[in-house]
Amino acid sequence: MPVVWMLRRVASRMLQRPACGCQAPVLPGRFLGTSPQQIPADAHFHSTSFSEADQPRVLITGGLGQLGVGLASFLRKRFGKDNVILSDIRKPPEHVFLSGPFIYSDILDYKNLREIVVNNRVTWLFHYSALLSAVGEANVSLARAVNITGLHNVLDVAEEHGLRLFVPSTIGAFGPTSPRNPTPDLCIQRPRTIYGVSKVHAELMGEYYYYRYGLDFRCLRYPGIISADSQPGGGTTDYAVQIFHDAVKNGRFECNLKPSTRLPMMYIDDCLRATLEVMEAPAESLSMRTYNVNAMSFTPAELAQEVLKHVPEFQITYNVDPVRQAIADSWPMNFDDSNARKDWGWKHDFDLPELVTTMLNFHGSESRVAQAN
Ligand SMILES: NC(=O)c1ccc[n+]([C@@H]2O[C@H](COP(=O)([O-])OP(=O)(O)OC[C@H]3O[C@@H](n4cnc5c(N)ncnc54)[C@H](O)[C@@H]3O)[C@@H](O)[C@H]2O)c1
Ligand SMILES: C[C@@H](O)[C@H](N)C(=O)O
């Protein structure tokens, strides 16, 4: 590590400067500002088993969204339950609360974030808090705060405490002037949503902190992620999750994108594995800090055709949402992830047929359980 990085890190650790620039002393004591009920898992942290002791200590922000609970469960299998803390500003459902450490964390509250990192000796941070593309357009000022100011807090905490930081970016970081079929890692990025603008900002700030301060920043541009047991949080690709619920429940689905709208997509298991793989990749294998990752690319009509093979009575109709359609029309149709494949060996497992079979099996068995009860 260059001397300038080391000196700066030592100085910043001594100063413990909050991102807002105001002076805040480093407070002694455990879990200041958080109630004991929020951290029942504290006992677990202090009774960490021997085998878990040398693992990374992970914090996931925005962990109660579509991807965070799955990520926590995936990482806990690898690093041990008590080494992975899920956090959010919402109240967790009981099964999540009981499944491992959960803590309240608002990424707009720098001091709260720093306390959590310090008190739990966090070493890896997965920053999942965000407002997605469609909800971001409905509340630009909140999206700007969460996606940009929140990121600044996370970057500063990560840099001051020497964390390895993962921030997901998205196909939404590209825009209508980017090459769309396929979209390479390095090309024009002029997105037209606050979500996309904030993600380009995150990519650039992370890379800047890497070159300027030596922050171990790693970033993947995810395609639309499709999950069976969690709901999407207000994006443009949400239709590709909802279609499975509706196909199994009602045999029909009303799609809010045009039938020919082609977008890159990925099953959640591939997404979580890609995330862990890039975090574990040896530093020397990474030629970039931000990589495209992809699995498949399809249109609503193609997805419906595949569903029809399993649900013969299935019907799809179209009622286009102009906001989502305009966003989708500006995004990549196919994603070139050859750098991820070359540098750290990325390889997806799920193509469209496996995705559809897996999703329908999950929802089919869920609905059979519900009918039996
Ligand atoms: N799901 C996808 O298809 C997809 C695709 C590309 C990138 N991503 C990225 O992956 C990450 C996770 O996505 P997701 O689908 O789980 O998102 P989501 O919208 O489902 O969840 C985001 C979470 O952030 C939380 N949050 C909001 N404001 C917060 C604050 N001030 N402090 C702390 N938490 C706050 C919300 O409560 C929510 O639980 C996001 O950064 C997203 O941009 C997701
Ligand atoms: C693509 C991704 O970033 C998210 N699912 C959205 O549609 O906003």
UniProtKB/TrEMBL annotation:
The entry's keywords: NAD, Oxidoreductase
Record-given protein name: L-threonine 3-dehydrogenase, mitochondrial
Described function: Catalyzes the NAD(+)-dependent oxidation of L-threonine to 2-amino-3-ketobutyrate, mediating L-threonine catabolism.
Organism: Physeter macrocephalus (Sperm whale)
The family this protein is said to belong to: Belongs to the NAD(P)-dependent epimerase/dehydratase family.
Gene: LOC102981942
First and last residue of the signal peptide: none
Domain annotation NAD-dependent epimerase/dehydratase: ranges: 58-293
A GO BP annotation: L-threonine catabolic process
Pathway this chain belongs to: Amino-acid degradation; L-threonine degradation via oxydo-reductase pathway; glycine from L-threonine: step 1/2
UniProt-listed Gene3D superfamilies: NAD(P)-binding Rossmann-like Domain
Catalyzed chemical reaction(s): L-threonine + NAD(+) = (2S)-2-amino-3-oxobutanoate + NADH + H(+)
Keyword NAD: yes
